[in-house]
Amino acid sequence: KIPKYSCPPPPLPPPLRHTQSQQVLQTPSPLKHKPSLNGLYTPQRTSTRMQRQDVLPVYLTKEKLTPTPSFTAWDTKGRLEDMEKLYENLKTQLSGAADSKTAIEESLSLYKARVQELSQLNQDLSSSNKTLGSDFERARNDLHTTATDLRNVKRDHERDIQEVERKHERDLADVASKLEKEVHLLQRERERDEDRFKKEMEDAKAKWQRAKDDETADLTTQHWEEMEETQKRHRSEKDLLQKEVETLKSAADSRAIESADEVKELREGVEGLRKELEEANESIKSLKTKLSGEEAKNAGLEQEKASLVSKTHFLEGNQEAQSLEFTTMSEKLQDALTARDATLDTLRKEEMLRRKLNATILELRGNIRVFVRTRPLLTGEESPSRVEYPDQDSLEGGKEMVVHAPTTLSATGKERNEAHKYAFDRVFGPGSANTQVFEDCRDLIQSVVDGYNVSILSYGQTGSGKTFGMSGPEGIIPSSIGLLMAEMQRLSEKGWEYSVEASFVEVYNETINDLLGDAKTWDEGDGGDGSVRGKKRERHEIHHDPLTGKTTVSNLSSVALWPPPSNDGQWPPPASTADTAQDATADPESDAATSYTHKAIDNLLTTAMKNRRVASTKSNERSSRSHSIFMLTLKGSCAATNETSEGVLNLVDLAGSERLKQSGAAGERQKETAAINRSLSSLGDVIGALASGKGEAHVPYRNSKLTYLLQSSLGGTAANGKSSRTLMLLHLSPLAAHWQESRSSLLFGSKVLGAHIGSAKKK
């Protein structure tokens, strides 16, 4: 009989040993998680494994069919229970794995959020780093600019010291010359005074001696005469008294009875005589006192005579000291003249160095610059645009502005607020005055004296304040002329002589008109009054000399501003010098010349403003309908260094750009607006062509009379090597209603800022 446990178990596909199945079923336990400090869960692998039951497998051998000792028989039910337990464990592990997966996904989402926060933080730090880098660069540039300004201030201080030294030398020379003249005058006066003094002394001495002798004689004679008369009177009175006494004594006997009253009267008479005698004695004493006073006065006159004699000896000795001092002053004067010549040579060299440094600074800043100025609100204007000036308080002045567009609605109905940031060479806020704008243009205008062509273009929409900034009180035109006049007077001390001429033209409907000429020569077709502009027009043609690079306009009037011409009846008449006559210390010729120049400038601007085309539109009550160009030509020469220079200053007041729909122009105004916009568009094309860097051959100067007239100023270097420097001064309106026009002007200014017109060279 075969034992119960001797049969092998039923076959299993594939046959596996129980131990192998045990090993296969031993899967790792699910991951467990433990909380971290930051609230996240970190997966942790457990070391817990399934506890294997201590059940030995059952084996059958070939030798015997009985179970092998120490082996347990095959237990199907037990194995099923093991499988069920294994299934339960596996199910538990799967459930734990699902929980672990959920926890891992949560941790992953937290990690992703954390990574996104760190990325955003990294971007913020990068932006902050860039900002700090730009601030560092700006600070370094500010430091460099400050150092440059310090050197400029130091150079200006040294220049002022030299000016003071020169003035001191001139004053010393004047004092020396005056002193020399005064010495000669003193010598002549001293000689005359000595002669007159000697004669007066002799006359005074003789007169005093005569007066003294006469007075003494008179006093003595009068005294003795009075004494003799008194004595005679006293003797006669005494004799009379004695006679009377004798008579009384002789008659006493006969007149035994005499009244007491008569005796008393006689006694009173005697007392009166005694008093008279005493008075006479006192008179004698007073005469003696007066005589002693006269003697004291005589002693004083003697002392005065001695002092006058000593003063005469002093003057004779002082003459030698003055002669010695005059010789010393002459030597010092000669030394001062030698030092002055050496100083003038040094000043000429420093002036040449200053011009080179000024040219280098302007070249580094760029030969074409753009300034922006926003005019203030006028009375009755409302709804201003929102404009910010971030760096308005910086040492170099504001160069950035942020313009906020009016609020609009997007397609989804949300409000949209756009902010546009712009950067230029200089930005002026509404509170900036004309003097502040001119101060930033000084170095550019001053280079005209050094022989450069300079153009300042006032650009902007109508009503933005262009004409006020150019021709108004303390505007660029009068301030520029004042600066150039001061520079010419300063350089005249260094041997430079200048002549200045001015012209004023306008470009109206692509036609050039002479604003200083006779307005009656303009045709009726220009929109003028027929009774005034009924004569034949004088044609003005533009010519560019390829050899000298000079631009001229035919049949154009010019006014000599310096030196003042003689009064030959030409315009303008010489200015009156009545205002300057009150200053007695001023030079009459210099005052008359300066007064003439200022009067000529006032007449020039008044005539030009009267002849220029203006009209009223919906955008502006007084709108300029033409482009005006003020041309100032300076020619200088220095005989000491054999140098010459010629510079031209073009101050351009462009007509206001405007839209036909907004301005409401019609008829002649519509034609003017179209011509203005077309010329401004041509100016933009020229600037764009210059910015592209394709060369002069591709620049469309001839598309407009305005650009063709300004070719030498915009085109950079001419055939003779003479170059130009250009400043575009953008004027903006502060009103929100003019936002589109202001933005167009800003975009045009940014376009101009990117243009390059070459390296500046003087003639």
From TrEMBL:
ATP binds at G460, Q461, T462, G463, S464, G465, K466, T467. The keyword ATP-binding applies. It comes from Hortaea werneckii. This is Kinesin-like protein. InterPro entries: Kinesin-like_fam (IPR027640), Kinesin_motor_CS (IPR019821), Kinesin_motor_dom (IPR001752), Kinesin_motor_dom_sf (IPR036961), P-loop_NTPase (IPR027417), Vik1/Cik1_MT-bd (IPR031852). PANTHER family: KINESIN-LIKE PROTEIN KLP-3, PROTEIN CLARET SEGREGATIONAL. GO terms for biological process: microtubule-based movement. Keywords: ATP-binding, Coiled coil, Microtubule, Motor protein, Nucleotide-binding.
